[in-house]
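How a chain folds remains the central question behind the approach discussed here. No coordinates are needed to read the tokens, only the vocabulary itself. For completeness, the protein is quoted in full, as a sequence line and a line of structure tokens:
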Amino acid sequence: MADELMLEIVTPEKMAFNGNVEEVTVPGSEGEFGVLRGHASLLSSVDVGELNFTKDGKKTYYAISTGYAEVTSSKVTILVETAERSDMIDKERAKRARDIAESRVNKLSKEDDEFDAAKAALVRATIRLNVAEKG
């Protein structure tokens, strides 16, 4: 289809997705942004969050970590540390991870050296769980 956009989601371990899509929404570090075919070229850093795309009228969701996005008029390349498709996330494991991270954050003070890492773990776990619910 002429209006399709090539999307690649790449991690150090694998090609998480490679195919034509109608649109993609990316959690950029300066805010979420959407891309359609014909988009202006850009480079952006990517934040931990939910990436989604539409293919054949159906949305697919991924929980992704930090990385970079390269956008051209016909292709989007997402380079991230991790990318998990919603239907591949174990919901029970994600709930346990969120509960552990939440407990850890609640036990630490903001001045504690480990607080920022614990808070980041809680954000990742919450995003994974939210994305898993969409799978």
